[in-house]
Specification:
CATH class: Alpha Beta
Strand order of the largest sheet: 3-4-2-1-14-13
Shape: globular
Distance between the termini: 7 Å
Helix content: 25-40%
CATH superfamily: Endonuclease/exonuclease/phosphatase
Largest sheet: 6 strands, mixed
CATH architecture: 4-Layer Sandwich
Strand content: 25-35%
Radius of gyration: 17 Å
CATH topology: Deoxyribonuclease I, Chain A
Oligomer: single chain
Number of helices: 9
Number of strands: 14
């Protein structure tokens, strides 16, 4: 199973530039997880809604041109699976009207897979936004724990909007305590790990420095690699033996985020 997550920061813009077409053809994923699609299906081209090789699922925000998530699954891949269902919520989580969760469930030989594309809130707009961000974190962790307890194989990919530790951010001292590197957000990441979920890339690269997934475009931070590692895959730690590859695709342009690739034996 080859899965790639990418905050595209506007899927129509990436398509217009040709970056999306080249990206999907080059990497040929079984599943693509997209965040910040910033559009509705009725605004999308035929390429984005009726692809010959992929079934395309979207959860758009009620506010047009904002947030939103999506999942593409290869038709030749999913044909081997049963009970394919698309979901768009996490129970009791705030911000569901912003299209923050795309969740594809499918089964094979009595094993259920739950694949999530999640765009976690930034939380910096207001005091309420900050409270809702922390609540969103909690509800996501509660839900994936419930699914795992049922025996499901859970795969979470997306823009989590927090750098976990100092190794995950270029300017840790300057950003300590700020949104995206706040102790309460980082404590939630600690809970994720304590609950036996893997931060997949970091689990296999514990000491690697200066690997990031987001760079501010206004300051041309990508040119200097002044970045944040805020895009992740999470898996149950028992699935670590199934991981065959995980890599940030730093050469991929078109967004202020780069994609993250994961390959699993399933």
């Amino acid at each position: 199973m080859k899965i790639i997550t990418w905050n595209v920061n506007g899927i129509r813009a990436v398509e217009r530039k040709g970056d999306l077409q080249a990206f999907t053809e080059q990497h040929n994923g079984d599943l693509f997880l997209f965040q910040e699609i910033k559009g509705n299906r009725d605004q999308f081209s035929e390429y984005l809604t009726d692809h010959p090789d992929y079934d395309q699922y979207y959860h758009s925000a009620q506010k047009k041109g904002y947030a939103g998530t999506g999942i593409w699954v290869k038709k030749s891949f999913i044909i081997d699976y049963d009970d394919v269902t698309f979901h768009t919520d996490v129970p009791h989580a705030p911000n569901m009207d912003e299209g923050r969760v795309a969740h594809l469930s499918f089964s094979h030989k009595k094993k259920v897979y739950d694949v999530f594309s999640i765009y976690f809130p930034n939380g910096g707009k207001s005091d309420d936004a900050w409270v809702n961000k922390l609540a969103f974190y909690d509800k996501v962790l509660d839900y994936i724990n419930i699914l795992r307890d049922k025996g499901h194989e859970v795969i979470v990919g997306g823009d989590v909007n927090v750098a976990h530790n100092e190794i995950d951010i270029e300017r840790a001292k300057e950003n300590n305590g700020k949104i995206g590197f706040h102790p309460k957000e980082r404590a939630w990441m600690d809970r994720v790990i304590k609950d036996d979920w893997l931060d997949v890339w970091r689990s296999l690269n514990p000491d690697v420095e200066r690997v990031y997934s987001y760079w501010d475009t206004i300051t041309r931070a990508r040119d200097r690699n002044v970045g944040w590692r805020i895009d992740y895959f999470f898996l149950d730690q028992n699935m670590q033996k199934n991981i065959t590859a995980v890599e940030y695709l730093h050469d991929q342009m078109g967004s202020d985020h780069c994609p993250l690739l994961l390959e699993l034996n399933v």
